Amino acid sequence: LSSCRCFSAFHLLRCVRLRLCSRRGQNRLPLWIREIWAYMRLLAKSLYFNSLTDSDVVFDSVFEPVFLTVDYVTRWFGLVFVYLVVILTSSIVGIAYVVLLPLILNTYSPPWIAWHVCYGHWNLIMIAFHYYKAANTSPGYPPTEKHDGPVVSVCKKCIIPKPARTHHCGICNRCILKMDHHCPWLNNCVGHFNHRYFFSFCLFMTLGCVYCSISGRNLFLDAYNALETHYQTPAPPYTFKDKMIHKSIIYMWVLTSTVGVALGALTFWHAVLISRGETSIERHINSKETKRMAKWGKVYRNPFNYSRLNNWKIFLGVEKRSHWVTRVLLPSAHPPHGDGLTWAVFPVKKDLIPV
Predict the structure, then answer these.
(1) Which positions, given as ranges, span the membrane (predicted)?
(2) Does the reported pTM lie above 0.85?
(3) Digit-coded pLDDT (tens) for 213-269
(4) DSSP character for 154?
(5) How far apart are CA 108 and CA 91, in angstroms?
């Protein structure tokens, strides 16, 4: 009798359990919600999937949607930035020809007139030439087919071998040889084949802005005082043309001074990087490697630093003394040193390009 009671109790508990399980199965969440939840759990676990995960990996993973949005916006608004550069530069050139040039011809002595005319036109030609070349020259891409050149890794996005100093651009959606950065003002990446054009444009644009700011300072003060001075007696009878000239001079001086300071700082920073033989991306990589090697009691040295003078010779393509004039101070479309695929990876004491 006792055994029959035990069997009945066990059977009752089993029936209750099966009934609860069947109800639980009926109340399960929809499949699409369970899939989203499983995907979110997978993303969370991917942040600590191995010992190589650090704060940078977590930061990149969390802000990946932000980076994708910025890349998308920059890609589609690239031409807007290019048109903005052309319009602003053209406005300054127009003011220089319409307003400043007549004042120079009527005020300055012949030697000063010759100086302003020659320097101004030389600077304008250098700005226009290097901007056009920087925006229209391909930065250089690694071959997509199999080749015998040396590679250091495989791009996780392009799934192609990457030579040394090559990095992937999310905006161009391609790997770039010796990539420095993607410049929205050029609507182009700055890489091996147009890096010199980009730097020269920044340099000559800075010189042009400084030239306009210094030479137009007195004109700016006169124009500002003419518009802002409160007269106790009736103000001078300025015509509409006079007021527009004053406002144009103020606009030119404020714009060139602001751009000169901002672009000058950027140009100086890139000059420092060129002197060290590294790009903007390599600056961050080398900084991390320096800290990592320091923990081991070792000193990290940039393998692409060939001494300050050699770095500039290689960057500018200077192979003989006359090239400092024909390739640096005059417009030149000569190709850069090397093909961007292979690099000498050890510093040398002698000049790579003797001059």
Answers:
(1) 76-100, 112-132, 197-214, 250-272
(2) no
(3) 998 888 888 888 877 665 555 556 677 788 888 899 999 999 999 999 999 999 999
(4) E
(5) 24
